[in-house]
Every structure is written in C-alpha cells, then in structure tokens.
Amino acid sequence: MGNNLQEGDMEDVCKILAKMSSLISLDISDNPITDEGIRYLIPFLELALQRGNPLRRLRAENCDLSSFGVTKLLDCLASINKPLDMLSIADNHLGSSVAATLVKFLGSHVRELNVEDIGLGPIGFQILEEALPRKVKLFHINISKNRGGIGTAHFISRLILQAPNLVSVDAGSNLLPPESLEVICNALKQTTCNLTRLDLMGNLQLSSDIFPAVFEFKKRGKPILLVPLQQGSCAPYDADP
Predict the structure, then answer these.
(1) Residue 237 above 90 pLDDT?
(2) What Pfam families does the annotation carry (predicted)?
C-alpha cells in the first residue's frame, strides 16, 4: 500500500503475485496504477480465483481508476465461481456510470464492500436501488460521501429488505434530506434483520430532534441508527482539498 507503484509496474507485480499461492489479502491502495494497471491485475485475479487460491480480500483505494477500469474489474470478479469476500474501490472518482456493473456484483457472494467517495450521486443510487438483486449476501457496506440525497435512503431501505445478513451500513455525508429517516425507518419496520449499525452522521439535515422515532430501533439495547442530535451539528463533507 502506498509504494508509488505506477501503471507500468503492475505487470512485474502480477508476476510476483502469481507465485504467492497462499495470498489471502491484496492491498494496492494509494498507488496511481490507473486502468492500465488494473488491466494487468485482472488476468492474475481470474487465474488465482479459478485455481482455488485463498485470495479473498482486495483493496484498490485511491488508485486513479476510472469507471471503465473498475467496470472491467467488477465484470471479472462477478463471473468467477469463488468470488472475493471483500472489495474496496473507495476514493476513485468513478461516477454514476459504474452503478450498473456494481449492482450486478452485489449479486455475487461478496460480504463486504467499500465504495466510499466514488461519485455515485443520485443517479447512481437510483440504478442501485432499481436493479438490486432479490437476495444480497452483504454483511457490511460503506457508501459514505457519495452525495446521493434521497436516493441514498431509498437504496438503503431496499438493501435492508433484501440483504438479510446485513450488519452495518456507513452512509455518512450523503446530503440526505429530513424525509430520509422516515424512508429508512419504514424499511426497518418491515423486517427482522441483523442490522446493528446504520451510520448517518455528517448529513446536516438529519437529527434525532426532528425524527425521534430513530430511537425505537435497537439491537442488544443500543440504537441502530446513528444520526446527529441536532441539524447542522456535524461538519459537512467537502470533496475539495
């Protein structure tokens, strides 16, 4: 992680990785490998996973990837019989165009997904909600800092209903409007789920003051929903440096 690997280095890196038959977790985050680097990585992943290698976790955060490269990666991972348990593609500006492929990947066996700050926006969340597979095997998902607005809430509510093993959701700093709490709480009322933590901090228009019903939902005596106590009580998310 953070070794200043460039796109041209990935061919040699993958040759080394191919000799590591016991590799369980691969973290190439904070290296500007771009889509060209992912192009070298995909054949390695296909071969490793098809051969039954124990690789189960992949982090490719802040790698200067585009939606094109990540779409190719997701297509590869979704097509393999023994897919990853955990994937993080956070902090790559992918935009809403990656959502259609991402939602197909959600239908695989992935248990943990981090898509924080990839630029999904309202359109991306709408695609995720409308095309979400009927049964999703996720345990954890991080969708923070994607500026999805009310679309984020609708996606979360659908996910609650269709991911029975879901334990935690990070959805902070998504510009959620006040009515989002009612949308999410209505979903929680419809199902008995394993959800223990839904983090909505950093959404300045939300507060337990305006919707105290959030405290009705608890797991092991602790509130499931984490929301600001008062509107505007959290620092806003700002993508600018």
Answers:
(1) no
(2) LRR_6
The predicted pLDDT at position 238 comes to 47
For residue 226, what is the enclosing H or E element?
Answer: strand 225-226
Spatial separation of the C-alpha atoms in residues 224 and 184, rounded to whole Å: 11
| 210 contact partners, CB below 8 Å, separation of at least 6 | 178, 181, 231
User: 11 CB contacts (<8 Å, ≥6 apart)?
Assistant: 40
Judged against a pLDDT cut of 80, whether residue 218 lies above it is answered with: yes
Mean pLDDT, the chain, whole residue set: 92
Domain extent listing, the chain: 1-84, 93-241
**pLDDT band (50, 70, 90) for residue 234:** low
**How does DSSP assign 77-146, residue by residue?**
HHTSSS--SEEE-TT----GGGHHHHHHHTTSS--EEE-TTS--HHHHHHHHHHH--SS---SEEE-TT-
**Measured distance CA(52)–CA(178) in Å, rounded:** 47
Bridge-based pairing state of the strands 86-88 and 222-223: unpaired
Q: CB under 8 Å to 203, separation ≥6 — which residues?
A: 171, 172, 173, 174, 175, 176, 180, 227, 228, 234
At what angle are helices 10-17 and 34-50 packed, to 10 degrees?
A: 10
* Token duo for residue 119: 């630029």
Which CATH number, 3.30.1220.10, 3.80.10.10, 3.20.20.450, 3.30.1450.10, labels domain 1-84? 3.80.10.10
Domain 93-241: give its CATH architecture: Alpha-Beta Horseshoe (3.80)
Distance (Å, whole) CA 187 – CA 222: 19
